[in-house]
Amino acid sequence: MRPLLMLWSCLVLPGYGSVVDPKEISGFEGDTVSLQCTYGEELKEHPKYWCRKVGIFISRCAETVFAGGYGQEGRVSVHDNRRENRFTVILRNLTLKDMGKYLCGVKRLGFDKTASVSLLVFPGISQPFTQLDSTSTEDTNFVPSSSSKSRVSIPLIRILAPVLVLLALLLATGLAALGSCMFQWREKAQLASETQKKDKVHLSHLSTSLSFPWF
């Protein structure tokens, strides 16, 4: 009787052998990201899977990728490492359509052991994929842990672009103002020159009149 009660507890009691702790991973378009899902010793021989979470009131799986050791569907691959009680999910060449909720799960009799994972994808330029060190295997619960390195550095040109545009506008404005000042100065200089010429002509006529008076 006692073994039956223990089996029933394993099947229906929430939280037994798993800790559902929502995680979040992120990357840019074209990036490759990965995460590791750790499970308990009692789930070692069960099939592992990764799927897209769909449905509002009742959650269900779509685009499921199973791993009986290793599995791959399109740009997604799942590798189960039973020695370390964890499996790795790798998502390659991310697109904006990949953004959403996913389930990291272990299939078993009754209710599957799953953990929810949120994937965020940002528009941007892809960088080379970097695989980080594996997480510790001391935890025997089924917990997704991100092993991807999201790109947080922004290209220098993106930071300097607004400054360069502002400097270009200031330079253009300064050049326009300088050109306007030069144009006004030339006009004034020409006007002064013409005035001096007229004064000289007037003085010349006046001097001639004084030299030959009419009387």
UniProtKB/TrEMBL annotation:
The keyword Kinase does not apply. The keyword Zinc does not apply. It is found in: Membrane. GO terms for cellular component: plasma membrane. Residues 14-118 form the Ig-like domain. Keywords: Membrane, Signal, Transmembrane, Transmembrane helix. It comes from the Eukaryota. One of its GO terms (molecular function) is transmembrane signaling receptor activity. The chain crosses the membrane at residues 156-178. InterPro entries: CD300_family_receptors (IPR050671), Ig-like_dom (IPR007110), Ig-like_dom_sf (IPR036179), Ig-like_fold (IPR013783), Ig_sub (IPR003599), Ig_V-set (IPR013106). Residues 1-17 form the signal peptide. PROSITE patterns: IG_LIKE. PANTHER family: CMRF35-LIKE MOLECULE 9, POLYMERIC-IMMUNOGLOBULIN RECEPTOR. This is Ig-like domain-containing protein. It comes from Moschus moschiferus (Siberian musk deer).
